[in-house]
Design a protein that fits this description.
The protein has helices spanning about 1-15, 50-60, 75-80, 150-155, 175-185, 195-205, 235-250, 250-260, 270-275; strands at about 30-35, 35-40, 40-45, 65-70, 90-95, 100, 105-115, 135-140, 160-165, 170, 170-175, 190-195, 210-215, 215-220, 220, 225-230. By secondary structure, the protein is of the alpha+beta class. It folds into two domains: about 25-105 and about 225-275, Periplasmic binding protein-like II (D-Maltodextrin-Binding Protein, domain 2); about 110-220, Periplasmic binding protein-like II (D-Maltodextrin-Binding Protein, domain 2). The strands form five sheets. Strands 5, 6, 7, 8, 9, 12, 13 and 16 form an eight-stranded mixed beta sheet that branches. A hairpin with a 2-residue loop joins strand 14 and strand 15. Helix 2 crosses helix 7 (about 235-250). It is elongated and about 55 Å long.
Length: about 280
């Protein structure tokens, strides 16, 4: 009887013990909020460069991606991360205060866009030709919130020859293709466009376009910005994990940015530390 009882206990213990392959932690789900129609960054078909970078981060975290599609409009952080709808927002400015942001994984800049055959070589807001050229500039709509290039031009009294192209259309992110197409077809001579959008659309354009970075700053007005991934305030654990993933996958991420034509500039901190 004692032997049979011991054998029964052994069988019960083995039945309750997890199999070796079940001991590994199952992949977690990473809920990612992204704009469903905002190429080259993201879209519902997951064809943007932020979609590709999210995939790399998720693999490094052994996680599965579950997208929550949400237009990146004003108040998006409060309604998504703040409300617990998702865990991560890719492609946000490092300096935003509505969420916790990771260390940046790239830094880009506004660029002057012109047609290659024109050989304009615009590289400064002080170029006197900007007062006579037909210019395109991205606008947000509220003058107090306008893009840095729009402020730089207005500060110099350059307004009458400027055509605005909205970043937000009816509150949602608008495609940057119209401003790039305006340069390609000669509607404007020069456009000042955020680099990641300009680089990708220049690669798609049949016209040969030249992209020249603006100065990093115009007096105290920044033209180059760090880009991070955002998490809900207080979620330091996820922030640290994502930062480690971004750092470990640096080469793969740079490859994606190159593929999409995203212009990058070094951050001041990197320049100082590399000496």
């Amino acid at each position: 009887m004692r032997i049979r009882r011991s054998r029964n206990l052994l069988v019960f213990a083995l039945a309750c013990a997890p199999a070796p392959w079940a001991q590994a932690e199952a992949p977690r789900t990473l809920r990612v909020c992204a704009d469903p129609g905002n190429l080259p960054y993201s879209n519902r078909d997951k064809a943007g460069f932020e979609n590709a970078i999210v995939d790399i981060v998720a693999r490094a975290l052994d996680a599965e991606v579950d997208y929550v599609w949400w237009s990146q409009q004003r108040g998006y952080a409060r309604k998504t991360l703040g409300a617990g709808t998702c865990d991560l927002w890719p492609g946000v400015a490092t300096a935003v205060t509505t969420m916790e942001t990771t260390a940046p994984y790239y830094r880009s800049t506004y660029v002057f866009v012109s047609r290659a055959g024109e050989n304009l070589d615009i590289a400064s807001f002080d170029d006197p030709r900007l007062k006579t050229f037909r210019l395109g500039v991205q606008l947000i709509g509220n003058d107090a919130m306008n893009t840095p290039p729009a402020h730089a031009l207005a500060k110099r009294g350059i307004t009458s020859n400027v055509r605005g192209f909205m970043i937000y259309d009816a509150g949602n992110a608008a495609s940057p293709s119209p401003i790039m197409q305006a340069v390609a077809d000669g509607t404007v001579d020069v456009a000042i466009v955020w680099g990641p959008a300009a680089g990708w659309f220049a690669k798609q354009s049949k016209a040969q376009l030249v992209l020249t970075p603006t100065p990093a700053t115009d007096d105290t007005l920044p033209m180059a910005f760090d880009v991070s991934m955002g998490v809900k305030k207080g979620n330091d654990a996820l922030k640290s994990k994502v930062e480690r993933a971004l750092a470990s996958q640096r080469e793969a991420i740079d490859g994606i940015l190159d593929k999409f034509g995203v212009p990058r500039v070094d951050s001041p901190a990197r320049r100082v530390s590399s000496r």
